[in-house]
Design goal:
With 76 residues, the chain is mostly helical. It contains 3 helices and no strands.
Length: 76
């Protein structure tokens, strides 16, 4: 019984890793395909007195997500 549970957990973990890898590819593609749009946003909506503009905050979050996903993809 314990062996079946262990296999089920490992299968679930593998599925999660595969999904994260697929999401990483999608995130990378979206990031590359929206480069021009993001530049236009930064021109139309320049940062005010904030440390980071909204676009910069999104870029930082994207970089963090890609980093986490890459670590999971490479190390499991």
């Amino acid at each position: 019984m314990e062996s079946m549970m262990t296999k089920a957990i490992l299968n679930q973990q593998e599925l999660v890793k595969r999904n994260i890898s697929q999401l990483l590819v999608q995130l990378t593609n979206i990031s590359q395909n929206t480069r021009g749009e993001r530049q236009e946003i930064s021109i139309q909506f320049p940062p005010e007195d904030e440390e980071f503009s909204l676009l910069e905050e999104l870029e930082l979050l994207t970089v963090n997500l890609r980093g986490y996903a890459s670590q999971i993809q490479s190390t499991g």
